[in-house]
């Protein structure tokens, strides 16, 4: 039997750098197709588009991952029919809660009449768990529009994010001509980054040549990037964690529909065709520049505060943060929760087999009041288990200990409310070892393991 356990001990010293980031997921070209699902359903925005599967896209030359880049095209050869022009829409298989998303794009769909490209994230039960539009525009638009869509009760940038039932949302006005479409492509692209915390949703755009050092490295630091291009600051008008949960990453290029179709005449496109659909149907050659070329896409989580959930796209996910759960994938490493995460109420002290030690009994050891425990057991495969824990309000620090062959970790019985005692209880060598390991491994994550 293989047992994995992770102890989180709250530090007595507040964290001074709450969001140090480390790489969580790298959507590199060789992994991209395995990490995204190709959506083939009807377009929910009523576009004139036929989303195709990966095999069809590859066969028709619309999806390519050679030369270390990901290219996603629309059909620019055939007159469209049926549902509409062939295109690609992909959704990440992993959903996220908090973190940093950084994307380097060499080319995006140009400012072409009839097009509606977007790079965005969305949660289940739209719009109640939020939508974050990082890149979006229609027709001949020259600047990027960054927008948030939510359920009722959220206002950002002084705007109602549930306007028109969430369809309109709350967003920025396009300004930078290098941030979208033709201007973006003429400058050889650029880098976008989204930082999502409990306090705010910040988006940066860096035109090619202006990106900060290390932005796609192992530990990017948004604190060195200057002011964000768009700052959606949560406050009394919108609690971020109440309105944005379980976000999947999406690329798509649709045509016409609820936005591009409805602004066809306003965007100066009516001279190209009586209707958006008629133009998109009969002019395939005009869409040769309607493609994405992605150099890199990476997702980072904050050190010691992995508020991210790895869940297959399309499956229900527990609300965040009120109902956290441990959902291991193959490999059996436990999901972790860090500073600021909300956990269920802890069991009463009587379930610990006696009251926890007081500071007077051991003044050099952190109080058990701020010491949640999360344990993951695996026996022949991954097992999902949720255990009671406390709210972590400060820096999380794990204790790493080694078990002798055949020895069971002492917290197992205590964790399940029987007569076992917490690993810091008792006296002598056991307490000294625990303190020694705490000091030695304040900044490292580890596990108990024996076979």
Question: What attributes does this structure have?
Answer:
451 residues, alpha+beta, eight-stranded antiparallel beta sheet, seven-stranded antiparallel beta sheet, 8 helices, 25% strand, disordered N terminus
Short description:
With about 450 residues, the chain is an alpha+beta fold.
**Main sheet properties:** 8 strands, antiparallel
**Rg (CA only):** 25 Å
Shape: globular
Number of strands: 23
User: Which class do the helix and strand fractions yield?
Assistant: alpha+beta
Describe the protein's topology.
Layout: E1 2-7, E2 9-10, E3 21-26, H1 29-35, E4 36-38, E5 49-51, H2 54-59, E6 63-64, E7 70-72, E8 85-87, E9 89-96, E10 99-107, E11 115-122, E12 131-136, E13 147-149, E14 155-156, E15 159-160, E16 170-171, H3 181-186, E17 190-196, E18 200-207, E19 230-233, H4 240-243, E20 247-255, H5 257-261, H6 276-282, E21 292-302, E22 373-378, E23 396-397, H7 411-415, H8 429-440
Parallel strand pairs: 5-8
Antiparallel strand pairs: 1-22, 2-23, 3-21, 4-9, 6-7, 7-21, 9-20, 10-17, 10-21, 11-12, 11-20, 12-13, 13-16, 14-15, 17-18, 18-19
Could you explain how this protein is built, in words?
The protein has helices at residues 29-35, 54-59, 181-186, 240-243, 257-261, 276-282, 411-415, 429-440, and strands at 2-7, 9-10, 21-26, 36-38, 49-51, 63-64, 70-72, 85-87, 89-96, 99-107, 115-122, 131-136, 147-149, 155-156, 159-160, 170-171, 190-196, 200-207, 230-233, 247-255, 292-302, 373-378, 396-397. It is globular and about 50 Å long. It starts with a strand and ends in an 11-residue tail after the last helix. The protein has 451 residues and is α+β, with helices and mostly antiparallel strands. The chain has eight helices and 23 strands. The strands form six sheets. Strands 3, 6, 7, 10, 17, 18, 19 and 21 form an eight-stranded antiparallel beta sheet that branches. The protein has a seven-stranded antiparallel beta sheet with strand order 4-9-20-11-12-13-16. The protein is 12% helix and 25% strand.
